[in-house]
Amino acid sequence: MDRAQKEKVVEELGQIFESSGVVVVARYEGMTVAQMQDLRASMREAGGSVRVAKNRLAKIALEGKPCASIGTFLTGMTVLAYSEDPVAAAKVAEKYAKANDRFVILGGAMGSSALDAAGVKAVAAMPSREELIAQIASCIGAPAANIAGALGAPASNIAGILTTLEERQAA
Question: Residue 63's CB: how many other CB atoms inside 10 A?
Fold first, then answer.
């Protein structure tokens, strides 16, 4: 890899560290190519990506970034999992780490906050953006549904009483 290619990689990694909602650093020593492809596919489905880069280049890319403290995790065979959604990459990485003992989460960063392995696990337990939007929408729609139910209840009660009276008269 020549100097121009290294500079390009450092620039790409810098963009990843700046624009990602979460970056997870994990050790992947001993994983097969098929397992790595499975991880990449799972991450892609969740809207994230996986990147293997030289630790030295990643440390250079981290210089001056708010999450520069994650450079301590960049030793040995490491992989970066990242996504714009603040929890997607953490969820996929945590799920994959449970299924594959060779994939070990070391830590990560969420914005300017550095996370250890327990922090990544806590982020993975948070609801995703889509789940939060659904919860907010249901909270907003619940009062309207309750009002509609309350307005419709007397009419259905009257209809039920009339039906019962008709059945009694017919019998």
Answer: 10
| pLDDT band (50, 70, 90) for residue 106 | very high
100 and 162 in a common domain: no
Of 57-71, 104-118, 125-139, the range with the lowest mean pLDDT is 125-139
Q: Are residues 20 and 54 in the same domain?
A: yes
Burial class (CB within 10 angstroms; exposed 0-12, middle 13-18, buried 19+) of 129 = middle
The whole-model pTM stands at 0.72
74: domain CATH number?
3.30.70.1730
- d(Cα 123, Cα 91) in Å, to the nearest integer? 8
Judged on CB neighbours under 10 Å (0-12, 13-18, 19+), 1 is exposed
**Do 121 and 148 fall into the same domain?**
no
| Domains held by the chain: number | 2
DSSP state of 127: P
The residues facing 114 across adjacent strands are: 109
Asked if 24 and 42 touch (Cβ cutoff 8 Å), the reply is: no
Range of the domain at 95: 3-126
- CA 50/CA 48 separation, integer angstroms: 7
